[in-house]
Amino acid sequence: MTATEPRTDEATKVTGTRLLRKEDPALLTGEGRYTDDLQIPGALHMSVVRSPFAHARITSIDTADALASPGVVAVYTGADLADLWADQMPMAWQVTEDMHNPPHFPVTQDTARYVGDAVAVVLAESSVAARDAVDLVDVDYDPLPAVVDLEAALTDEVVIHESAGTNKAYTWDLEIDEAAVAKAFDEAAHTVTGHFVQQRLLPMPMEPRAVACVPEPFGGGLTLYSATQIPHILKVMTAVTLGMSEADIRVVAPSVGGGFGSKLEVYAEEMLCTALAHKLRRPVRWLEERSENAQATIHGRGQIQEIDLAADADGKVTGVRVRLLADMGAYLQLITPGIPLLGSFLYCGVYDIPAFSFTCTGVFTTMTPTDAYRGAGRPEATYAIERGMDLLAREVGVDPAEIRRRNYITHDQFPYTAVTGLEYDSGNHESAAQIALDMAGYDDLRAEQAKRREEGGTRHLGIGMSSYFEMCGLAPSRVLASLNYSAGGWESATVRMMPTGKVQVVSGATPHGQGHETSWSMIVADKLGVSPDDVEVLHSDTNTSPHGMDTYGSRSLPVGGVAVALACDQVIDKAKQIAAHQMEASADDLELSGGVFTVRGSPDKEMPMAAVAFEAFTAHDLPDGVEPNLTAQVTYDPPNFSWPFGTHVCAVEVDEETGAVEVRDYVAVDDCGTQINPMIVEGQVHGGIVQGLAQALFEEAVYDADGNLQAGSLAEYLVPAAPDVPPMRLGHSVTPSPTNSLGVKGVGEAGTIGAASTVINAVVDALSHKGVTEMRMPASPLHVWEALQAARGGDGEGLTAEGATDTAGADRDAPSDSLQADQGGAS
Amino acid sequence: MLVTVTVNGVERSADVEPRLLLVHLLREVLGLTGTNVGCDTTSCGACTVHLDGQSVKSCTVLAVQADGSSVTTIEGMAHDGEMHPMQQAFMENHGLQCGYCTPGMVMAASALISEVEAEGRTLDEAAVREGLEGNLCRCTGYQNIVSAVLACARGELGDGTGVQVRDRQEVPA
Ligand code: FES
Ligand code: FES
Asked: What are this entry's molecular-function GO terms (chain A) (predicted)?
């Protein structure tokens, strides 16, 4: 056995460098193993029969033809499967005592409640046979009225769940000091109100969901492979739903092709594959089609927001009041009801606001369930306050940058206890904003805008900015408890230095593109003085990593990464005792640098960590009471959230004649504390910005009045392609988090949180001299035209919901054509 | 129906249903799962391969249409333990995150460069963006993908990253 060469030079510190990703060679050469790539001999293929109606009573199901179809092994209805469930589908967030959590089973029994609701499943020897047989299942439906409008749903004219008796799922208040809010509004010199719609979005990871469940050859155990963000949570929930022992279920998430929150979920198909593999003792697999992904994978956003701001004569905000209607969709998924609550803490944004009230009503509709989507409540909140600040700037008559300057929580106010009761650990908003404004050439842009307005013309320049806070590192378990969330927010890590000096890390965080293996290796490399290549990271398999809380909410680094660092510290402590014993020195005199222990005052004595690891392995001569091997396991529960922040600025050109919006420049300054790998940070920000920008300009899950999803495939739903998005320019500041030893904060959602409000502020700004104050997202040519019409005193009447649908779903090459068609129809 | 296709330099034959798509021939019959499926509407480009040197969406080609042709998949791009320059460029420029769109992106981008070179044009940023319009990526925001393709086109690659990859020219049985 030979020890690997320790890195002895401090200059070789790897954290903070743009180390290329360890994950990449496999993914680049086709060696990535996504769930559907697994070769599973003898597997049955499952296909799901889905309701074509948004709301319908199922009067009968005839499965005879499907069963007789070649290759078909079984067809099951909801009633056939009822005995398989020990509990209904999991829901982990009972936000209020009286919240309705209606019955929800993997296959519905008598009523379909959204288009795509599962009504039967087919098992066949091939995927083609299963899909063919789906069309032969003969279901008789008695259609009931659909409800796709939140206000209409609240009238309870049509009740979606008889057991609840109402479409109101819950009303949740963040009760602080109602009197203080009332006083702020009574005494305000200025008040503004914003009405905003957070349109439904489709998360659309490029890999559709995929599941395969394989019975173990011995015993009653099963391995569930799933394209999931949450193998650990899924394992517990599967055991509960199926009434199985946790010990009999192993969950593995192989390579996962993106999630964005939509794979932070326990899905019917995962329960079905597992239950049926268990029942039949045969492997069962399922692959989602893209159109199913649109219908049956959770949607994001879906809120109607009303926000009031009160301010004094200088535009200093004195109070904020928020009322939300949140679209739950047809059922409560894993954390559906909690998403608006996560946002509730960020409606005061980055501003020093003394009085705040928040109330939210969750509403059932006959649409696909909603749940976490990149940012989960926080982009929505940031949008409302940042659009609100622009409205206030206009009302007070100052520049949007100036109104923000007057309201920022200043650097010297940190740590800052917000009116919501949360403590913001650190921030430097004025500085981040200034960097962003300078990078964008803000003053020059304003000058250009003034000049162009003077000259007239129909192509207008708009400048938008948005400052944000992100609440990362979900979460201190006690805070989650206070919100009635039924799990903790800790993360687990094990670090083992092997006899060869190589290091094995076991992490409970479960990546799906974020590069955890690289980042964790970098943290370990600097702590233990090994090469990042000598670090192996195990994750995403509940057998090798039994404890974990998985990956969502930008928690991996500030919770999981910190756990890795703390485990390294424990390994070092133990190694120090062993090294001291071997070198006959006092542990207090030992120093570790570049992976080598030296003794203060005895320059000839040194011992590399790897040699200590070997001694710990042979255990021939360890100090009394010290166990063999260098292993440490840490479960880290953060004392606070971490608080990344930043300011984004963009310049857009809006063509009044075509309604086309072009983003000319996009600048983002993000502060996520210490950066472990700046290259990965930038990649996360780029991707995040484009998802926010896409909400602002392109994407919407449009439903018609009958509850049919109009944008149900990638042909109709405008996920931006390369020509649709601008190059982005990134800057950053570094304000280390005082909450954890690495100073890290998290960055996965930052871009998305900042982007939608930045872009829409710019679009509104471009048309503000035309009287436009509002812009419905996405700012499609139709919505731009409607906003201009409304500003001119027209109301855009004659445009039907279908007109809106057509434009939202228009070919990305021809937005102006479809607008002209609509205009033709309207005039 | 019997189809014979040369895949990554190796001739393969299979008896297939007439409706079988090329992507399923590659993935399910030949076991080459590097080519991914992201949609059912020819919209995402995840399944892009080279068919007789041209980039095609393999979910849009019937296996029987490929009879007698030569197909290159992502598994055939690396040679002698070295990544193809486009693969290396993606790695060096962080042009991938989850990696699901990546095989299709690499195939589309490498074909784009050959095409542009054949026409005697030079690639600029706008041309790369237009050229990759049919390939969607949800993770990267495209910026680093565009950088990767430009770096590859301009020969601006590192001195090899020292990354050895397994040679996958041999099609698994
Ligand atoms: S799978 Fe072929 S284009 Fe999407
Ligand atoms: S890297 Fe994830 S879809 Fe492109």
From this structure: iron ion binding; oxidoreductase activity
For residue A362, the Cα-to-chain-centroid distance in whole angstroms is 20
The two tokens of residue A497 are: 């230095």
Q: Alpha-carbon distance A46 to A760, whole Å?
A: 43
What CA–CA distances, in Å, run from A800 to A822, A823, A825, B102, B157? 9, 12, 10, 40, 53
What pLDDT is recorded for position A473? 83
B164 lines ligand 1 (CB under 6 A): no
The DSSP output letter for A422 is P
Site to probe by mutation for ligand 1, drawn from B24, B42, B107, B133 as the one with most ligand atoms within 8 Å of Cβ, is: B42
Which structure tokens are listed for B65? 């249409």
Report residue A675: phi and psi, to 5°.
-100, 125
Average pLDDT over residues A467-482: 89
Buried b (16+ CB within 10 A) or exposed e, A732-745: bbebbbebbebbbb
Question: Which whole number is the average pLDDT over A746-752?
Answer: 92
Q: What is the DSSP letter of A197?
A: E
Q: What one-letter code names the amino acid at B52?
A: D
Which residues are CB-contacts of A348 (< 8 A; sequence separation ≥ 6)? A320, A356, A385, A418, A419, A420
Q: What is the Cα–Cα distance from A615 to A628, expressed in whole angstroms?
A: 8
Category of B31 on φ-ψ map: left (φ > 0), alpha (ψ -120 to 50) or beta: left
Q: Cβ distance A495 to A632 under 8 Å?
A: yes
Instruction: Report whether A823 contacts A806 (CB < 8 A).
Output: no
In this prediction the ipTM stands at 0.95
Which pLDDT tens digit goes with each residue over A775-806? Answer: 999 999 999 999 999 999 865 443 433 333 33
Q: Which residues partner with A673 through β-bridges?
A: A744
pLDDT in tens, chain B (173 residues): 999 999 999 999 999 999 999 999 999 999 999 999 999 899 999 999 999 999 999 999 999 999 999 999 999 999 988 999 999 999 999 999 999 999 999 999 999 999 999 999 889 999 999 999 999 999 999 999 999 999 999 999 987 655 556 554 444 43
Distance A205 CA to ligand 2 centre (A): 8
Sign of CA dihedral B155, B158, B161, B162: positive
- Scan residues 56-95 of A and list those with Cβ closer than 8 Å to B: none
User: How far is Cα B37 from Cα A208, in angstroms, rounded to an integer?
Assistant: 8
A738 residue type, one letter: P
Taking CA atoms, what residue in A is nearest to B21?
A128
d(CA A257, CA A264): 13
The half-sphere exposure of A70 on its side-chain side, counting CA atoms within 13 A, is: 1
The token pair at A574 is 């133990």
Q: How buried is A352 (Cβ within 10 angstroms: 0-12 exposed, 13-18 middle, 19+ buried)?
A: middle
* Residue in B closest to A683 by C-alpha: B140
